[in-house]
Predict the structure.
Amino acid sequence: MGHLLAMIGLGIMVGLSGTGSAAGLAITGQSLLGALKKKPDAFGACFVPFAMPATQGIYGFVGFIIYSGVIKPDFTMMQGAVVLGAGIAMGLACMLSAIYQGKICASGIAAIGSGHNVSGNTIILGAFPEFYAILSLVAAILMQNLLK
Amino acid sequence: MIEKMKKLSLLLFHAERETALARLQEFGVVHLDIEQGKFSKRIESLIEERSLYTRALDILKNHIKNSSLPAVSPISAHEACSRIIEQADLIDKNTQRCEILKKEALQLEPWGNFSWEKIQKCRVAGINIYFFSVSARDYEKTDFTAEIYKNITIEKINQTGSTLFCAAFTRSAVVLPFEQTRLPEKTAAEINSEMRNLEKQNQDAVQKIISLAPCRAILQKAAVQIDDSLFFEKAQVSLSSKSEGSIYYIQGWIPAPCEKDVLAFLDAAKFAYIIEEPLKTDIIPVKLKNNAFTRLYEVITRLFSLPHYSEIDPTPFFAPFFTFFYGMCLGDIGYGLLLFIPALIMIFKASDKMRPIFVLGLFMAAATILNGFFLNSFFGASLFSSDGGTGIIDSPSRLTFLSSYVKDSKTVFPAISFAILIGGIQISLGMLMQFFNRLRNDTIFHAMVPVSQLVMFSGLIIWVASTGFLGINEFSIGNIQIGRMLEVLQAKTYLYSLNISGLDFQINYFLGFGFLMLIIFTILMPGGDGLSKAIGIYNTVTGFLADGLSYLRLFALGLAGGLLGLAFNNIAFMLIRTPEGTLNFKTPLAAATVIILLFGHFLNFALSALGAYVHSVRLIFVEFYKNVDFKGGAKPYTPFAKTAKN
């Protein structure tokens, strides 16, 4: 049962964070295409905000690498629950932060497309929601010590 | 550093004001206080003319990729601009017409090729023809024997999918219960012919634009001359009249080191002027003055805002941190080399304007390599062997003090402690800067508030370290046991224990006195009511934790990049690993290994480099600037000068 919980946790960890990044990138990508119609030379200024939601998927994958190396078939229920908890924490934080970061960045990209010089501001504001995905990764890494 | 400025008040006699301004613009040192909202007819016409030149240059840029074309122009800039815009307008008009024609061709397509001449003849003969489309289901349901269809002949022309295209012939005017289609009164052949003609015209227009490529240089020169004229006109409308219009006045700013030159110029030109020290209430333009290293980072300062004239320029203070943060987030020797080599090549190849960016890249690369050693990471793999496992080089290194290790069957990440401690150092520096800023601009009580915060923050770090939080008490660099030192400091400065809801707070002198100082100086600080001061204290205390923890991203991003690189290595080498555990490079799968390694590390490098930049910038602009109490918002020093070379 512990092993089963751990595997579900891994799935949630990598699945939800990847979903969040995909959704976030789709949001920024749509906005980038709209901005390029108005201002074709804005690609350089818009690229960093566009790519920002990509990192949460990587955090999920990093969590997956860390935990997949320690999961064993003889896991106790408690050990399984630790991995499941880490998975839920990372999966939800990464997914939601990527989607909402995507929305912030999309607004910034639209503004850049309309001729406003907000590239720096978009990067700063976009980094705010991502911090909670980073915190969830750090928490997941520290939770790994509970398995021992 | 911010260049010291002097205020210059100029008085110009009305008859000589244009000549005087022209001389001032030639001199090109004085920043004039230009009123941005003021316009004149001349300014409006110059803006309009400038937009035409911008458009002409953009059109040329879009059509001509080769920038090394001859710069000899057979015609004037004005003539070249008109011709380019004329041709571009023609292209736009023809393209729009082509779009309409394409839609018309699509509309006609299901109706086949028919003669409008014959339809016209039918109309003359009194036969009305209606075209309509209807779904096959509706058509089947329709009772064509009904009264309204008595004198109408309906013919099916075509069917595409479930849509029927029909024509109705009748001698009387009727309203059919179907949606009538209005067809363009021309044939498909006529449409195609017109489209070909328009495309030919567009090709000719493009050729005419390309033939004007040698005019690019004179267009650019003319555009710059318009900018200069615009600057001149804006300065002219910013003059305020005194003594019933006989005297004009304008205020300007000069960098203090240029004062002698300016005085010599003003005396020679017989200007009436006053040069004085600026007042605190003045809006003073800012000119940054930094050394060669710090100047590279001014681009990051400008990304947020130029500092206010009365503030300390944060650039020299964040530059080393930014470099180190970037290196810590990317943290890999291999990725550092990937950044270092192209940056080094580009320093010799790039233009003077772009060179500083690549020099900055070189510093970032060096920091990445250095942190790669600290984190013991070479393209995701361990370079040196450690307690946790083997490395590419089969011996341990003292440099790898940030790499993780296993202690009492638990993984310890020294990079977590290091990230918090380096964050603490940067926040403390920010508070010190805030102290000096406030000392310059406010009262001593205002200045003592950040000092209180600094004392309290130091106490907080000492106490938190002693609790073993995130393993800070274990942290050491070589033989220097920083964590233990903080623990000892906590024991030596212990003041009293505070038990809140079962949580034991071991208050030390720094924490206690810092908090006391914070309360006293906040109360003594002039201005603000009691409530806002209380909220200020609350925000300060709670802000410490959030600010400190924010630096955890340095650890997390470094770890994420390293682990992802390791994952790509594992996937790639899995393909060529033999059952005995050795690597077989002679198998054809080795090609796939190389592809996975190249693709995987390129992707990881690109995303990690992006994350490193974004989060380093954020730590500077949010955590550091917040503790500096950075105001910013200054306008840049822009001398009233001519850009165009005569």
Remarks:
- Chain B has 20 helices and twelve strands.
- The mean pLDDT of chain B is 88.
